[in-house]
Amino acid sequence: MPTQANFAAVDGLHTFPRLLFHHAQIRPNAPAMREKYLGIWQTWTWLDVAERVRALACGLASLGFKRGDNLAIIGDNRPHLYMMMTAAQCLGGVPVPLYQDAVANEMLFVLQDAGIRFVVVEDQEQVDKMLEIQGQVPTLEQIIYDDPRGMRHYTQPFLHDIHELMEMGRIHDRNHSDFLNAEVEHGHFDDTSVMLYTSGTTGKPKGVCQTHAAFIAAAQGGVQVDKLGADGDILSYLPMAWVGDHLFSYAQALVAGFTINCPESGETVMSDLREIGPTCYFAPPRVFESLLTSVMIRMEDAGKFKQKMFHHFMAVAKRCGADILDGKSVGLGDRLQYWLGNLLVYGPLRNVLGMSRIRVAYTAGAAIGPELFRFYRSMGINLKQFYGQTETCAYVCLQPDGAIKFDSVGQPAPGVEIKIADNGEVLVKGPMLLKEYYKRPDATAESINADGYFMTGDAGFLDEDGHLKIIDRAKDVGKLSNGAMFAPNYIENKLKFFQHIKEVVCFGHDRDMVCAFINIDVGAVGNWAERRGIAYSGYADLAGKPEVLELIRECVEQINADLVHDTMVADSQIHRFLVLHKELDPDDDELTRTRKVRRNFVAEKYKVLIDALYEGKANQFIETEVKFEDGRRGKVSADLKIVDAKTFPIVKKAA
């Protein structure tokens, strides 16, 4: 297995600043970054980006930023924020991106833990958050903002416009022309290049320190497997604090030299996606689920002929589309039908989704249902799962072309070793492992075993072809009272394939049956209700409608019928469920900022509902405190109906 040093140090380009200045030298006029601003796409070439990074780095130095300092970065995906990452790295500093939708108090822990002296933010909203908690972060000295709108009357001397910082930097560079080159040369592949905080599903977030070598190794492996080149485009819209964005929109862009495109806002992502037509696209399963939901809603509103044509050709695609994409042998009749379907349905659909130019699309961050995976591949989108954690630069498994399995996360990526522990936990080793948890030597020691393998916390197994199959989080895999395995995430993902279901939380460990909480997708179910003349006043009212409960019961029973044939989880059919009166929300601490369910928190908060499910009650009243976007708190209450679902006798396979 390659070491970190020789895996990453290609032609001496073993830090991100060196990669940037290399691209500026060999492709100075090629587009490096684009941003849609006031409806118009702005472009920066590699030479432009290198010049601005140089100015920003020298500007930071003139404000006192030095080697070893941590720079917090807060905002939507913006070219200047990506540039600030490299600027901090030029000086031997460490960028620490935070989730921009977090409220000020949620950011407080990271700012304190990382000892932040400098913060760069996107706009007035984020400046206000910093000013709100400034007194609780004694190390905080300077705040730099990118968007000047609304900042005219802010007169604090520690606030700096990013363009003013660049001008300061240019003056500093003219006066000390050798300074930055020497700082960049001083950078080492084993220096920490970024600190990404874990989502904290079970406790306080931990700062994961990743080196230049680790992320460059991960980026090189992905570029090699999927043949990514400098002529590509990616839409960068996922949180900069998420490891997936850092790998694809930062590390791979700097390794391969393709173009980063930043949308105008979160609301314009879909229209910007269609305009850019990226060649590489990355989204968590939730995004692919919502795209499919929007497609199905549109089809429900279409005429009978269009509906019939759509369902006919989607059946053709399901039968042979994935095989055609993988270059496998398909009969002439099916091939002709698929060609016609591509003309009439798949091609226009890819165009509507902004995926006409996609060469490869990735999903990760949570397991994706095999049905959802098959849907996209069957209509000609080269969707692949990959697998990894923040601690592994999101790089453990990849799916090579022609070796795609719908129920696996792929084969070990280049340079990666995988081993399955006796308890079923997935262990990994390779050049992409974390350097350490920041100021947490105890946690670092606990995460890597005596043989140097990182313990992922996921339960899984390697099949006969060396593909890794993930069952669930190891800590979440339990047993029913009859001893049968209970893997909640596996069942939840099957249910979330239905367009009407947005979130599911299953319970069953040490119990005699599985029960579930369900969140409906208010857009999909609302559309369904309107077409049937069912009036409703909001989420809680819609979720409690008898017709909606019947709709969800049909979905649950379809999954139960499906589970019967999977002997490993056949006992995990859902016996009873309820539709929650509110959506699970990160602001209410029920989900992490990456939208993973905090199972223990949800189980404790809604204990009265779990008890009602298992006590055989027909309904249960609950009152819940909620937090609104403006910080106010309120209460929502409802008398929730509990629904019994049909279960099926387990099919015993012949010996």
The CATH topology of the domain at 4-199 turns out to be: Rossmann fold
Spatial strand arrangement across the major sheet: 4-3-5-6-7
Residue share in helices? 25-40%
Q: Number of DSSP strands?
A: 29
Question: What does the overall shape look like?
Answer: globular
In CATH, the architecture of the domain at 4-199 is 3-Layer(aba) Sandwich
Task: Give the gist of this structure.
This protein has about 650 residues and is α/β, with parallel strands linked by helices. The radius of gyration is 25 Å and the shape is globular.
Note down, in words, how this protein is organized:
With about 650 residues, this protein is an alpha/beta fold. Among the domains are: about 5-200, Rossmann fold (3-Layer(aba) Sandwich), CATH 3.40.50; about 480-645, 2-Layer Sandwich (GMP Synthetase, Chain A, domain 3), CATH 3.30.300.30. It has 22 helices and 29 strands. A five-stranded parallel beta sheet has the order 4-3-5-6-7, with helices on both faces. Strands 2-1-11-10 form a four-stranded mixed beta sheet, with helices on both faces. Strands 17-18-20-21 form a four-stranded antiparallel beta sheet. Helix 3 packs across helix 7 (about 160-175), helix 9 crosses helix 10 (about 245-255) and helix 12 packs parallel to helix 18. The longest helix is centred in the middle third of the chain and has 22 residues, at about 305-325. The two termini are about 40 Å apart. Mean pLDDT is about 90; it is low at about 1-10.
